[in-house]
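Issue 218. Parser rejects a valid record. Input:
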Amino acid sequence: MSETMRAAEGAARRILHCDMDCFYAAVHMRDDPSLAGKPVVIGGSAESRGVIAAASYEARRFGIHSAMPSVRARRLCPQAVFIAPDFRRYRRESEKIFAIYRELTPLVETLSLDEAYLDLTGRLGPWGSATAIAREIRRRVRSERGLTVSVGAGPNRLVAKIASDFDKPDGLTVVPPGKVQAFLDPLPVRRLHGVGPATEKALAEMGIAAVADLRAVPLPALLERFGRHGRTLHEFARGVDDRPVEPHRERKSLSTETTYAADLRSLPEIEREVERLAHELDAMLVRHDLAACTLTLKLRYADFTTVTRSRTLALPVADGGAVAACARELLGKTEAERQPVRLLGVGGSNLVSGALAQLPLFA
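Output the parser choked on:
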């Protein structure tokens, strides 16, 4: 299929990306009016080496964000109100919100408790437009649940996702098919799906900062530099995204890793980094309401030799302390104490619903 035909086909699609605003914190702030206007932080105690799962907009102004160690968040904002996560409450609330979505279309792809794609293609019904349905979603979430949701509407997932972040909180950004290029061109390339820090740096070395710059690069040059990913970059820079909304998609794994500018040489330093990555993975599991049955530690030594060590647990875990303990155990099965380390990563696989991680508590 030619690019022109694919773009035309994509223009007929109507996709929404719905993203709840500071969901975990917002639920507590709704239920406890005394928290209004205060910097609210959801996460473990700063005294127990906890990690931040979410922060209100008031807390974010101090630089607090998810996956940050609680002790650092406390230093940034001593007056912050710390609240222990209540995932049962969040799951119940999420189910009620997603029920609203599914009344409008059965094609709802769950990304996490607070984020979803909706495909409205051919399902506009009496509303007549995706914009009208987006307004109805925002109205109902506000009136029925007392919360706010930011919505992006566009001809595909790529555009809808970027649009939902444009006017947070409680925003609605609509990008008609004919305005996609004008919408994307001035954006930094980092806003495109699949452009992480490493790709962003590589593009910057090519003199590419904005999507318009990327669009000007011939496809052969991108393929030479990025391989198959170059074609994706070429298409996304033109607003072409054929990925479907998949209501029954299952996430198979989650992971986080860091490549260091200077090799790590001391074991205490490596252990601290492993613990940090473990808590980052924990925050990711929490955001997606998942628990991991298998944990994997990845190392790359200074000579570029890469090794992995894995352990499958008797019970699924979604707790930062348990993930960190397992990661430290796996670290002991490597040569980290004797060889400089240039990359560390911690991952979880064989994922199950986060609710299953709570079962042992009630056995």
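Fixed in the parser; the record now loads. Confidence is low (pLDDT under 50) at residues 1-11, 358-363.
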